[in-house]
Amino acid sequence: MRAVVYKSPGQVEVSDVPEPHIVEATDAIVKVTHAGICGTDLHVLKGDFAGITPGAVVGHEFVGEVVEVGRAVHRILLGDKVMSSDFTACGQCRWCDRAEHWQCTERAFFGTGTAFGPSLSGAQAEYVRVPFADQTLGQLPEQCAPEAALLMGDNLATGWVAIERASTQAGDFVVVIGGGAVGQLAALSAQVAGAGIVVLVEPNETRRAFATAQGSVAVHPDDAAALVRKLTDGDGAEVVVEAVGGNGPLDFAMSLARARGRVVSVGAHVAESWAFPVGRAFKDEMTLSFAIGDSIRLRRKLLRLVTSGAFDPTVVVDARGRLADAPGLYELLARQQRLKAVMTP
Known about the structure:
Elements: E1 2-8, E2 11-16, E3 28-37, H1 39-46, E4 61-69, E5 81-84, H2 94-97, E6 127-130, H3 133-136, E7 137-139, H4 146-152, H5 155-165, E8 173-177, H6 181-192, E9 197-201, H7 205-213, E10 217-219, H8 221-231, E11 237-242, H9 247-256, E12 257-265, H10 278-283, E13 287-290, H11 295-307, E14 317-321, H12 326-334, E15 340-343
Parallel strand pairs: 8-9, 8-11, 9-10, 11-12, 12-13, 14-15
Antiparallel strand pairs: 1-2, 3-4, 3-6, 3-15, 4-5, 5-7
Helix pairs in contact: 5-6, 5-11
């Protein structure tokens, strides 16, 4: 089969690789109809994650059709149209019992090497093996567009969980740092949750224009602090979402939050440490948390929001192509010339 594989830092290529097969009784094989490229894939492209070797199939966002199931798979049936989480969960451990699937003892993340668990071949391919299929996969309703379902597997789940983890209240002043797909979807999620004003901070002019068109107040990072002070009478934001990753954006997020503010980071981090401003955080009773989107837990809620018309996450998809187009699409995303790419194998 054809698949997008990691070649070397900064390079992917489309190659012929062996088709996947059932390994465990809880596996399913999915014929991929739509596969996404996201910011986490750009970290893979740069070689930021451990265990990525040349020839590894990449990608973790997909929807498709089930073409084979293991004998222990009961909820997911042959021929089902399905959406998927970007990571697997066993459904049996104490973490899964608490709906905290990311902490599952059997977790594996599609197409990201060994950074987040055992290596698992990715989904930017014609077929993908899905462990623990009954938990990892969900049925794709006819009334839900495949691209929307694909986004629920990672980008939308991540944007939504940021707003949820911050306990965002109606009327809250929300700042989102980062205008990539996750940041834009976090901003839209904040609007759906009833935020009073949503400010999106982004250096890229095109992404700022997109955010403005979607109802946010967009601002360049150089002007963000002054704007937030002006709009909050000097207090700062109740909620700040950091959707870039890295120590600098974390510092920036803390600086924009008010006393008793809630900062949630959903950007991907590779640094081992960060100088936390503990003195200010203690004095101002601030809250800092980190969150990873769990589409297994959020799938039903997000399906209701999307199919009811509360909002359309597919507005962030601005590049489409085939698997053969993957190297060029990766380049466009790395240069921030596109927000989100979806491929149809």
